[in-house]
Amino acid sequence: MKAAYIRGLEAYAVKFAAGFHDNYRLGLPTGSGMMVMISSKTGFPQAVLLGNGYLTDVRTGAAGALASRHLARETIVTVGVIRSGVQARYQVRGIALVKANRSYSHGSSNVLTSSRVIGSAQCFRLGELHHALEEGVLVRESPVIELGELTLGRHPGRESNDQITVCDLTGVGVQDTSIARLAFQKALQKGLGTAFNA
C-alpha cells in the first residue's frame, strides 16, 4: 500500500498492489493493483480505479522515458532492459516516445559497474539497486540523484558520454497520485465509469 498527499490538490491516491510470482501458473499476471482517489477536503473516497496495475505500469514507463530524455547519450542506438517482466514493454514504449530511431534488447547486470545512480534511498532498500549493493557493485556512499532534480534542472544529469547511468524507477506515492488524478479526470471528461451514491 502506498499513498501521497500533495499539498494544494483536491484529491490524493492510495494504491493497493501485490505481486504473486506463481500467478502465471493460473494464467494470471504477476502484479495486480488498484488506486482509490480520496478527497483532500473530506477524506471520503471519490473513485476506485481498478486497473489491475495498469496505471503503475504506465507511470513507471513514463518515468523511464523522462530518465532516458535526461540521462541517455544522444548517440545511443541500443537500449538494454534487465529482468523487468511486463515493465520491459512499458519502458521500451516510453523510451521510444522520447528517443526515436533506437533498437531495443535485453542487457545484463554488469551495466551497473562504474555507474552513476539515479533513484532514491528507497531504491537501495526495496528497488533493484539493492542487488547491486548486496553484490558490492555499489556502496551506500554512491551519490544518488532524484529524477525530479533532473526534470527541474537542479542537476545536470549526464555530464559526459563516458558515464554509465543507472536509474531505479521504484515508484513513489507522488507519481501514483499524479497518474491516478489524470486517469480520474480523463474518465470524468469522457463520461466513463459507474457512479455509486453513498
Account of the protein in words:
With 198 residues, the protein is α/β, with parallel strands linked by helices. The chain folds into 2 domains: 2-54 and 173-190, no CATH class; 59-167, no CATH class. It is 33% helix and 22% strand. 26% of the residues are buried.
In short:
It is globular and about 60 Å long. The protein has 198 residues and is α/β, with parallel strands linked by helices.
User: Taking all residues together, what is the mean pLDDT?
Assistant: 79
Query: What general form does the structure show?
Result: globular
Query: Could you say which structural class the secondary elements and strand pairing correspond to?
Result: alpha/beta
Residue fraction in strands: 15-25%
Give the domain tally: 2
The arrangement of helices and strands along the chain is EEEEHEHEEHHEHEH
Poorly predicted sequence stretches spanning 5 or more consecutive residues: 105-119
Which range best describes the helical content: under 10%, 10-25%, 25-40%, 40-55%, 55-70% or over 70%?
Answer: 25-40%
Q: The biggest beta sheet, please?
A: 4 strands, antiparallel
Cα end-to-end separation: 24 Å
Sheet with most strands: strand arrangement: 1-2-3-4
Number of strands: 9
Instruction: Tally the helices.
Output: 6
Q: Determine Rg (CA atoms, Å).
A: 18 Å
Give the helices and strands, then pairings.
Blueprint (H helix, E strand, L loop, with lengths): L1 E3 L6 E9 L11 E9 L5 E5 L4 H18 L6 E4 L4 H13 L4 E4 L8 E4 L2 H5 L3 H7 L8 E2 L1 H5 L12 E4 L5 H18 L8
Parallel strand pairs: 5-6, 7-8, 7-9
Antiparallel strand pairs: 1-2, 2-3, 3-4
Helix pairs in contact: 1-2
